[in-house]
From TrEMBL:
Residues 25-395 form the Aminotransferase class V domain. The keyword Transferase applies. Belongs to the class-V pyridoxal-phosphate-dependent aminotransferase family. Csd subfamily. GO terms for molecular function: cysteine desulfurase activity; pyridoxal phosphate binding. NCBIfam families: sufS. The lineage of its organism: Bacteria, Pseudomonadati, Pseudomonadota, Alphaproteobacteria, Rhodobacterales. This is Cysteine desulfurase. It comes from the Bacteria. It comes from Roseicyclus marinus. Pfam families: Aminotran_5. One of its GO terms (biological process) is cysteine metabolic process. Catalyzes the removal of elemental sulfur atoms from cysteine to produce alanine. Seems to participate in the biosynthesis of the nitrogenase metalloclusters by providing the inorganic sulfur required for the Fe-S core formation. Catalyzes the removal of elemental sulfur and selenium atoms from L-cysteine, L-cystine, L-selenocysteine, and L-selenocystine to produce L-alanine. It catalyses: (sulfur carrier)-H + L-cysteine = (sulfur carrier)-SH + L-alanine. It is an enzyme of class 2 (transferase).
Length: 407
């Protein structure tokens, strides 16, 4: 299939605008991706002509909204390579999904001295919920570091597991280094010792085809706003046997079957974990976004981004005053960097913005990784399905200006 980048770009209306008098070059996809017109239209249609609350109504609009909303569960399952759509729990994003596991699965069964194994490259969303357990229940966090290239040795993860390990929590793809971690051997080794594994798929799900039934993680979280869908949308895949071990996280609404003065009967999973009025329109928009991505083809998106990554890598490597974090052969199209000298990441991003180039600057919600790298902050250029080699060239020109200003 020919990857028609011009057609794809035309379907994202924001890419036609200018910023500071320059064509927008949007390279902040790792934080949040832009939305295609089909998603914008679906959200508008849902709010303007089809909106009602789901599940409890018997009128036309409620039935229509329920049908569209619940249909997204199957879409997410297909996108993630999951046969049983009842293993898909709707969330507001990966953060809620990970917290659901922390409160619903880990908190009732972990005790003082029990261990959770993490990588040093985790996003705060996959760190702070485990710190809650450390603070409140005496759980021990064990950290596995990446090497100088940004690679994570699966064997190091395996060796970190011990008789007190109760959970392994790790990213599939680093949001700073761009490294795609080899999670499957870790999952297999953990399962051989009866240890469940949670994978943060917030970045990986955007850039590569997934088959979670084959991967085998017990919990796999994704977030909609990075998947070209609305903010406030997302899901977590939870294996059915793990669902059976979990208590509800939030009470109210559709997670209830019966309520009495002296007892409450919960709904069956996945609705057992979906309390209150949900993000109806957000999830509908996410379903459209995933259909859009699958229509383009995840293999095609991955191939396009691989070409883009190789081109960007070669161009950035030619700047001998630029320090790129993460040089793994398994690197995806995420580039975090600093300039030699005193230029702060915020100053660099401000100059780039004047040229219409949007990048992220800061710690990227990865405090332990930044400390491991010995850095206060980096700039991050993260690419998506609509970015081009010409935009890489604009980034390079803007970086050369930064070098002239700050050298």
């Amino acid at each position: 299939m020919t990857y028609d980048i011009d057609k794809i770009r035309a379907e994202f209306p924001i890419l036609s605008r200018q910023v500071n008098g320059k064509p927008l070059v949007y390279l902040d996809n790792g934080a949040s991706a832009q939305k295609p017109q089909v998603v914008i239209d679906a959200v508008t249609q849902a709010y303007s002509m089809e909106y009602a609350n789901v599940h409890r109504g018997l009128h036309y609009l409620s039935n229509l909204a329920t049908e569209k909303y619940e249909g997204v569960r199957g879409t997410i399952a297909r996108f993630l390579g999951v046969k049983n759509e009842d293993e898909i729990v709707f969330t507001s994003g990966a953060t809620e999904g990970i917290n659901l596991v922390a409160y619903g699965w880990a908190m009732p069964r972990l005790e003082a001295g029990d261990e959770i194994v993490l990588t040093i490259a985790e996003h705060h969303a996959n760190i702070v919920p485990w710190h809650f357990l450390r603070e409140r229940q005496g759980v021990v966090l064990k950290w596995v570091e990446v090497d100088a290239k940004g690679d994570l040795d699966p064997q190091a993860m395996i060796e970190a597991m011990g008789p007190k390990t109760r959970l392994v929590a790790m990213s599939h793809m680093s949001n700073v280094l761009g490294t795609v971690f080899d999670v499957k051997p870790v999952i297999e080794a953990a399962h051989a010792h009866g240890i469940p594994v949670l994978v943060d798929g917030s970045q990986a799900a955007v850039h590569m085809p997934l088959n979670l039934d084959d991967l085998g993680a017990d919990f796999y979280a994704v977030t909609g706003h990075k998947l070209y869908g609305p903010s406030g949308s997302g899901a977590i895949h939870i294996k059915a046997d793990r669902m059976a071990e979990m208590r509800p996280f939030i009470g109210g609404g559709d997670m209830i079957r019966e309520v009495h003065r002296d007892r409450v009967i919960y709904n069956d999973p996945p609705m057992k974990f979906e309390a209150g009025t949900p993000g109806i329109v957000q999830q509908i928009g996410l379903g459209v976004a995933l259909d859009y991505m699958m229509g383009v083809g995840m293999e095609n998106i991955a191939a396009h981004e691989k070409r883009l990554c190789d081109y960007a890598r070669a161009r950035l490597d030619g700047l001998n005053w630029l320090n790129v974090q993460g040089t793994s052969a398994r690197k995806g199209a995420i580039f975090s960097f600093t300039l030699e000298g005193a230029a702060h990441a915020h100053d660099i991003s401000t100059v780039l913005d004047k040229k219409g180039v949007a990048v992220r600057a800061g710690q990227h919600c990865t405090g332990p990784l930044m400390a491991h790298l010995g850095l206060n902050a980096t700039c991050r250029a993260s690419f998506g399905m609509y970015n081009t080699e010409a935009e890489v060239d604009v980034l390079i020109e803007a970086l050369e200006l930064c070098h002239e200003l700050f050298a």
